[in-house]
Amino acid sequence: MTWIDVLQIPVWTFAGAALLFILMVLDSLTTKYHDFQEMKDGNVAVTTRFVMKLGAQAYILSQSIVQSTYMWEALAISVASFVTLLVVEWIFRRVFALAAGIQLEQGIHDGKIGYALIAGSLHIAGALIIGSI
Fold first, then answer.
1. Which of 37, 60, 110, 121 has most Cβ atoms within 10 angstroms of its Cβ?
2. Gap between the terminal Cα atoms of the chain
3. Do 49 and 38 touch, CB atoms closer than 8 A?
4. How far apart are CA 118 and CA 100, in angstroms?
5. By three-state DSSP, how is residue 41 classified?
6. Is the separation of the CB atoms in 36 and 21 below 8 Å?
7. What digits encode the pLDDT tens for the residues 58-89?
8. Under a CB-based contact definition with an 8 Å cutoff, are residues 122 and 88 in contact?
9. Model pLDDT, residue 52
10. Residue 90 CB: number of other CB atoms within 10 A?
């Protein structure tokens, strides 16, 4: 490890943390409820989904950093992956609603942990697939 590598650690960490914060704020805008208010009010289901999604995005970012030479590449891959996961989540919400009558988003808003675990596991599975590419 060189001094350049050591100096890059805080830069990559700050850039990654800023990107994750932005992505999670954007994600909160895609739900029909207010994520941050629900978390402040103690909705464990919303918090569970949020934490699982954050972990999935962090994993994608870590994999993109490993595979990228430049920071902008890693950040771009992470943003593209975020959009991909949003689309996958939207599709699965529709499939669960049509096939099983399960309204994931409403269930999470209502505090149903099982619904949050289903939604969160979709993000984790998607992150594992995306991270392997």
1. 60
2. 26
3. no
4. 13
5. coil
6. no
7. 998 888 888 888 888 888 888 888 889 889 88
8. yes
9. 95
10. 12
Residue 70 is classified by DSSP as S
Specify the residue for token string 């675990």.
117
Cβ within 8 Å of residue 66, ≥6 positions away:
none
pLDDT in tens, 5-51: 788 788 888 988 998 899 888 888 888 888 899 999 999 999 999 99
Tokens of 102: 């399960």
How many Å apart are CA 58 and CA 102, to the nearest integer? Answer: 28
Residue 99 token pair: 């096939």
In the block, which residue shows the tokens 């689309």?
87
For 86, the token pair is 């949003």
Distance CA 20, CA 12 (A): 12
pLDDT the model gives residue 49: 94
